[in-house]
Design a protein that fits this description.
alpha/beta, two-stranded parallel ribbon, globular, Helicase, Ruva Protein, domain 3
C-alpha cells in the first residue's frame, strides 16, 4: 500500500477499516498528533484505556515490555492498542530491531500498533526519508498504513478556517482567513486556539481583520523564538518573564509550547546543517521555508552555533515530555511549562512566577 495522505487516512478510518500497524510522520507535527488522538479515540473506548492502551516513547524503549504488550489479550473491548512516540530506530542494535520487526510481523488481529513521530527528524532532504526510515516505512507499508502529514499552505488552511467558523454560525472572508493562518504560522493547534477565542468573542456575524488583531496577538514568532533562545541558554528568569507576558490563560500555554517546540526544531535543523557544512541558504532550500518564514531559519542558524547538539537535543526531549504531560495530565499547564524550563536550566526549585 502506498504512503497515504491525511485525507485518505480520514476516509479509511471513517469507513471502519482498522489496520494492525500505523506509521505517522511528516512536517505537520500538529496534524500527526491530532490524527493519532483521533485514531486512538476511534478504536479504544475511554473506559477501557487503563487495561488496554499501552504507551511507549522512543527514549529508553523497552523491547521486552513492548513484546508483552503486543501479546496481551484485550480486556472488555475489541483490541489492544500500543502507541509509540519517536522511535529512534537509527540507534537500535540490529538484533533489537529485528526482534521489534518480528513482533510487528506477527501482530494478532486484536492488536493495533501506532507509531507517530513528532520530535525527531526522519528526512534527508525536502521530501525523502533518510535511509533507515525509508526502509522501515516500506516495511510498515506492507503491514498496515503509512501516512505522511505535509504542511498545509495558508490557502488550504483558509478553507478549513472558513468551514469551522461556518459551523459555528460565523463567516470570514478568504483574505482574513488566510491572514489568520499566516499570523498563526500555519500551525493548526494555534489556529484552533485562536478560533475558539474568536467564536466565543464574536458569537455571530463576520470575523473581521480588526477582530483578529484584537484577539490574536499573543502568538508571535519573535516571542516564541526569543523564549526558545532563553530556554536553550538556560536563562530561566528571562524565560519566565517572556512566558508570563506570552500566556494570559491556561489554553495559551498549549499553543505557546507548540510554537516553542517548532522553534527548537528549527534550531536543531540549523545545528545539524552547520555540523555538516551546509549554509544558511541550504537550510532554507532543504526544508522549503517559504519567503515569509525564512527568518526562522536565519535566526536558528545564527543562534545554534552557541550551543552543543546535546544541549539542543536535551531541550527537545524535556519539552516533548512537557507537551505530553500538558495533553495527558491534570496538572495546571503553567506549572508543567515552568517545571520544564527549570529542568533545562538545572535549577532545583519549582519555578513559579
Amino acid at each position: 500500500m502506498p504512503v497515504l495522505t491525511d485525507k485518505a487516512l480520514a476516509s479509511k478510518i471513517k469507513s471502519g477499516k482498522i489496520d494492525s500497524l500505523y506509521l505517522f510522520y511528516g512536517r505537520d507535527i500538529n496534524a500527526v498528533e491530532s490524527y493519532t488522538k483521533r485514531l486512538i479515540s476511534k478504536i479504544m473506548p475511554k473506559e477501557a484505556e487503563d487495561l488496554n492502551l499501552h504507551r511507549f516513547t522512543g527514549k529508553d524503549f523497552d523491547f521486552i515490555q513492548f513484546s508483552d504488550s503486543a501479546q496481551a489479550c484485550p480486556m472488555f473491548c475489541e483490541r489492544t492498542v500500543i502507541v509509540i512516540n519517536d522511535l529512534y530506530i537509527n540507534d537500535f542494535k540490529k538484533s533489537d530491531f529485528d526482534f521489534f520487526k518480528d513482533i510487528l510481523n506477527d501482530l494478532d488481529e486484536t492488536v493495533t500498533v501506532i507509531i507517530y513521530i513528532t520530535g525527531i527528524d526522519v528526512y534527508r532532504s525536502k521530501t525523502a526519508l533518510n535511509k533507515d526510515w525509508a526502509s522501515f516505512s516500506k516495511f510498515c507499508e506492507k503491514k498496515g498504513s503509512v501516512v505522511e502529514f505535509k504542511l498545509k499552505t495558508a490557502s488550504e488552511l483558509a478553507a478549513l478556517i472558513s468551514s469551522k467558523l461556518s459551523k459555528a454560525g460565523l463567516s470570514i472572508s478568504y483574505n482574513n482567513a488566510a491572514y489568520l493562518a499566516q499570523i498563526s504560522l500555519c500551525n493548526l493547534s494555534v489556529i484552533n486556539n485562536e478560533l475558539s477565542k474568536l467564536i466565543f468573542y464574536k458569537q455571530s456575524g463576520e470575523i473581521t481583520k480588526e477582530d483578529i488583531d484584537l484577539l490574536c496577538v499573543l502568538k508571535t514568532e519573535a516571542d516564541s523564538f526569543k523564549l526558545a533562545s532563553e530556554i536553550v541558554s538556560k536563562n530561566a528568569d528571562a524565560a519566565f518573564l517572556i512566558l508570563k507576558d506570552l500566556c494570559r490563560k491556561p489554553e495559551d500555554y498549549i499553543a505557546a509550547l507548540s510554537s516553542v517546540n517548532g522553534a527548537f526544531v528549527d534550531i536543531y535543523r540549523a545545528k545539524l546543517a552547520r555540523e555538516t557544512g551546509a549554509t544558511e541558504q541550504n537550510l532554507i532550500d532543504d526544508f522549503s521555508y517559504p519567503a515569509n518564514l525564512q527568518f526562522r531559519a536565519k535566526n536558528a542558524y545564527r543562534l545554534c552555533r552557541k550551543h552543543t547538539l546535546s544541549d539542543i537535543r536535551r531541550c527537545l526531549s524535556v519539552l516533548s515530555e512537557a507537551d505530553f504531560a500538558l495533553k495527558s495530565k491534570r496538572t495546571p499547564p503553567d506549572i508543567i511549562f515552568q517545571k520544564a524550563i527549570a529542568k533545562i536550566a538545572g535549577t532545583d526549585n519549582d519555578a513559579v512566577y
